[in-house]
Amino acid sequence: MANPITIRSVRKTYGDFVALEGIDMDIAAGEFMTLLGPSGSGKTTLLMILAGFTRPDAGSIQVAGQEIVRTPPHKRDIGMVFQNYALFPHMDVAGNVAFPLKLRKVARAEIETRVRRALAQVQLESFIDRGVDQLSGGQRQRVALARALVFEPKIVLMDEPLSALDKKLREEMQIELKHLHDRLGMTTVYVTHDQREALTMSDRIAVMCKGAIRQLATPRDIYDRPADQFVADFIGESTFLPVEWDGRGGASLAGSAIASSNPQAAGKGRHFLLVRPEKLEFLNGAEDGYNRISGTVDEIIFQGEAVLVYVRIGDGNRLAVRKGTRQGVFTSLPEVGQTVTLGLHRDDTIIVPEM
Ligand code: ATP
After folding, report:
1. Where is the ABC transporter domain (predicted)?
2. CA-only gyration radius of the chain, Å
3. SS3 string of 71-129?
4. Among 102, 223, 281, 290, which residue is least crowded by beta carbons within 10 Å?
5. Which residues contact 236 (CB under 8 A, 6 or more apart)?
6. For the chain, which residues make up each domain, given as ranges?
């Protein structure tokens, strides 16, 4: 039900503009791979090359060992889902989902069975005779998904399929899509610029910047071991403090020593200490394993599920500490104006090179 994809040295230019350069990627059979990056980083271009709508200037793409760069889109056995659904407005749900099968000249009885099966997969069986103009955004996206799955492709490509939906529905659909992928097992390449969506759904994430891959790793490694400042900044909430890295395991931050068991550093010299709000603790004693940063509480912001305590530290930077708002938390927090010692565990102390 799934095919592996091997991408080698793919390059794409538009005139003088280099949209992709030196793209290498191995996507395992059945893997959920996400291309994540800011606008213009080349995600859609790479997806269109995989789909066959864009021809790369150079490089190779193999699916299950077969070179496909010159294979036209309809012969690639690849299903596609787009952001804007691209449904046919004059057809009902059944007509839309049946379309790829008609294109492939599948027999009528077989079409009916497969359309019902695809609609069942996305929980839309009872909508089979509806016009697509009578559907909600989420339902339209499900129809688009059923249409992509109906010919049981071994690869599915999705370009920001959930970005038109509101936050709550988008989050529900993320989990639903993930479950569908786990059930059907097709190799999936998914484009998004939403880091949380990428972390939630993917087996691995390729973080792209200016037509190149900055890091390709599992969601946890991308989050906890970002390759550089660009990746760290794009994923999660972070403050970067300039440090002098000794090239071995220590750094100095405004004169104080900082130890890291998780450096992503390259060579000696100026680097950045990455500090995330959920990794900071308030220390009262001599707890082991922590780097200590002292400062003064500047501001406290209540956010509902969490409270953010902003602490101004010696070098003038402000660090946020996030605490979940379970009972008792408010009495344990320091007050504005109070001097505190922040603790950042050595294992959470991430040192990254400048981007
Ligand atoms: P977004 O998140 O905004 O969709 P993206 O990461 O998908 O961005 P691409 O659509 O792949 O980015 O575009 C990469 C770069 O290539 C952009 O700078 C874009 O302007 C440029 N580009 C894409 N298609 C063309 C084209 N047909 N002609 C010229 N430039 C193009």
Report:
1. 5-235
2. 24
3. CCHHHCCEEEECCCCCCCCCCEHHHHHHHHHHHCCCCHHHHHHHHHHHHHHCCCHHHCC
4. 102
5. 195, 223, 276
6. 5-224, 237-352
Cα of 19 from ligand 1 centre, angstroms: 7
**Predicted local distance difference test score (pLDDT) of residue 254:** 72
Q: Is 264 helix (H, G, I), strand (E, B) or coil?
A: coil
Rounded distance from Cα 158 to ligand 1 centre (Å): 16
Confidence label for 159 from pLDDT (cuts 50, 70 and 90): very high
**What's the one-letter identity of residue 164?**
A
Atom 24 (ligand 1) nearest CA: 45
- Which atom of ligand 1 has the smallest separation from the CA of 37? 6
Q: Is the per-residue pLDDT at 216 higher than 90?
A: yes
Output the residue whose Cα is nearest ligand 1's atom 28. Answer: 14
Please state which CATH class domain 5-224 belongs to. Answer: alpha beta
ipTM (interface pTM) = 0.95
Q: Which atom of ligand 1 is nearest to the CA of 41?
A: 6
The values of phi and psi at residue 273, to 5°, are -90, 125
Mean pLDDT for 146-166 is 90
Residue 14 beta carbon below 6 angstroms from any ligand 1 atom: yes
Asked if residue 1 has pLDDT above 70, the reply is no
Q: Is the CB of 45 under 6 A from ligand 1?
A: yes
Q: pLDDT digits over 109-128, tens only?
A: 999 999 999 999 888 899 99
